Amino acid sequence: MAALLVGGCANNGGVDSSSLASQQTPTPVNIKPEDVIAKVNGRAIGKSALPQRHEPTKPGSEEQVLDEVIDRELIWQDFAAQDLSADPGTQEKLNNILRMAYSQVAADRYMKSLTISDEELRKNYEQKKSAATATQYRVKHILLADEATANKVIAKLGKGEAFDKLAKSFSQDAGSKAKGGDLGWVDPRALGPEFAPVLASLKKGDVVPQPIQTQHGWHVVLLEDSRIQEAPAFEAVKDKILAAVRMEKFQEYIKTLKAKANITKGGEAKPEVVGVNNSEQ
């Protein structure tokens, strides 16, 4: 989400800078007395202005952070008192900063407003459960730089030479070489699209008849075993499903906004216009 929002803030202009410039003056906020951490020229600053910390702070650091917040408030108040309407460069920076801040706050508010039932989450789980069920393989491999060498290794294996010994002598995979080429239990999708159909055709104890070529080189593979990896239980992945459903709904929300907006992309002759109806142009 952050990447999407930050990306959307990269465009300059498109909104009347004077309308955003008016927002340089801080909006009055009613803060509970017990939440006030400081007042600057009569304006209260709430606890929410402090960064959220998850670790113990060093002695004196909290006072330093508070001083920094106060300094920022002083700078803001002084800035807001100036007439900056004649400075387009400053107005442009304000537009970009406000676009990022408002979109992030709005996105967070939208996500928190979503109500997603357990029934919806379970339905989503059942739809994706089959895709999460996969065959895993226990494999060993020897990585070679060329096909000719790989075929020589396959021939040696056919004559009874030990796979582990050949892996330690020939393999260019530093991570598995010392272990005799052992990769442990793996999902073939993690190895690359070339592996899955080949592994599915092998029986336990089989060596591939021809080496498998990938971007890393040529692989001689031994299938030691296979098993079905069942999908995790609903409760174990419920939080992840909730996050995914929220993100899907957020993306749909953005699509809805785009469908109602008048957006153009291009050069200076036709700049991007955001949030403006045709009748207003």
Give a verbal description of the structure.
The chain is an alpha+beta fold and 281 residues long. The protein contains 11 helices and 6 strands. It has a domain at 134-229: Roll (Chitinase A, domain 3), CATH 3.10.50.40. The protein has helices at 2-8, 17-21, 61-80, 88-113, 118-132, 147-158, 163-170, 174-177, 188-191, 195-200, 234-260, and strands spanning 36-40, 43-46, 134-144, 182-186, 212-214, 217-229. It is elongated, with a radius of gyration of 30 Å. The model is unreliable at 1-21 and 275-281 (pLDDT under 50).
Summary of the model, kept short:
The chain has 281 residues and is an alpha+beta fold. It is 48% helix and 15% strand.
**How large, in whole angstroms, is the Cα Rg?**
30 Å
- Residue share in helix: 40-55%
Indicate the proportion of strand residues: 5-15%
Low-confidence stretches: 1-21, 275-281
Could you state the oligomeric state of the chains shown? single chain
Q: Helix/strand-derived class?
A: alpha+beta
Elements, N to C (H/E): HHEEHHHEHHHEHHEEH
User: In CATH's first tier, which class of the domain at 134-229 applies?
Assistant: Alpha Beta
